[in-house]
Amino acid sequence: MTSNIDLVRKKLVVVGNGNVGKTSLLYAFKDNLFCQDYVPTLFEGNTHVIDVDNKRIELLLIDTAGQEEYA
């Protein structure tokens, strides 16, 4: 198990216009699933751990709503 000292924490925020696939992109990255049906943003902040260049990185994945009524 990797200790907290070896764990790098970063935030990944996805922004963009509404109905372009931000939430679907995050689900595809995190769970290897892609939903083709449009569902307004339901993806809340989730963490996902990846290994890059022999480093363990914990990403806080943050989705944003792209519809103007949420801006």
UniProtKB/TrEMBL annotation:
One annotated GO molecular function is: GTP binding
Source species of the chain: Rotaria sordida
Task: Name the NCBIfam families for this protein.
Answer: small_GTP
* Protein name as catalogued: Uncharacterized protein
Look up keyword Nucleotide-binding and say if it applies. yes
Q: Which Pfam families match?
A: Ras
Which key words tag this protein in UniProt?
Answer: GTP-binding, Nucleotide-binding
In its keyword annotation, does this UniProt entry include 4Fe-4S?
no
Q: Which domain of life is it from?
A: Eukaryota
Transmembrane stretches in the record are: none
Provide one Gene Ontology biological process annotation. Answer: small GTPase-mediated signal transduction
